[in-house]
Amino acid sequence: TRPVIATHSNAKALCYVPRNLTDQQIVALCDKGGLIGLNACEEFIAQKQADRSARTLAKHARFMVDLVGVSHVAVGFDLGGYYNKAEGHDLYDPEQAQNFIDGLKAEGFSEEEIADIAWRNVYHFLQDNL
Q1: Exposed/middle/buried for residue 43 (C-beta within 10 Å: 0-12, 13-18, 19+)
Q2: C-alpha to C-alpha distance for 65 and 59, rounded to whole angstroms
Q3: At 20, is the secondary structure helix, strand, or coil?
Q4: Eight-class DSSP state of 39
Q5: Residue 88: which pLDDT band, with cuts at 50, 70 and 90?
């Protein structure tokens, strides 16, 4: 009866791993008022090691926003000790979170949209549903 959060999910269309969401799942979740928290774990960002970056994760945000709107996309990072630090991965710990913000800027998001993705969408979701 309540919307749900897919707290650690990326777009399967951009990185085909079982954990990521299909377009159909993204739309269905968001049609019910749900929220998707992007996953910073490098294995869920891209299949090619060279593409596992904060900028590529920002491309997941762009893909989802284009599909369902900015109000359904948020940060859902697990940072640090939950996975191995890969060579060149630039979103491993909290000090590197700005790399994702820079990626959102490069993907053409406005300052308002970046604030929505970075914190406001989660804040409003929790305020409305808890």
Answers
A1: middle
A2: 10
A3: coil
A4: P
A5: low
**H or E element: which one contains 36?**
strand 35-38
Q: What's the pLDDT tens digit per position in 17-40?
A: 999 999 999 999 999 999 999 998
Check if the beta carbon of residue 38 is closer than 8 Å to that of residue 54: no
Q: Which two tokens stand for residue 87?
A: 């060579």
What is the CA angle 74-90-5, rounded to 5? 20
Q: Is the dihedral of CA 14, 19, 24, 30 positive or negative?
A: negative
Per-residue confidence band for 56, with pLDDT thresholds at 50, 70 and 90: very high
Output the six-digit token pair for 38: 């992007």
Amino acid in position 122: V
Residue tagged 């490069």 (tokens): 106
- Is 58:100 a contact under the CB 8 Å cutoff? yes
Among the listed residues 6, 122, 117, 9, the one whose alpha carbon sits nearest the alpha carbon of residue 65: 117
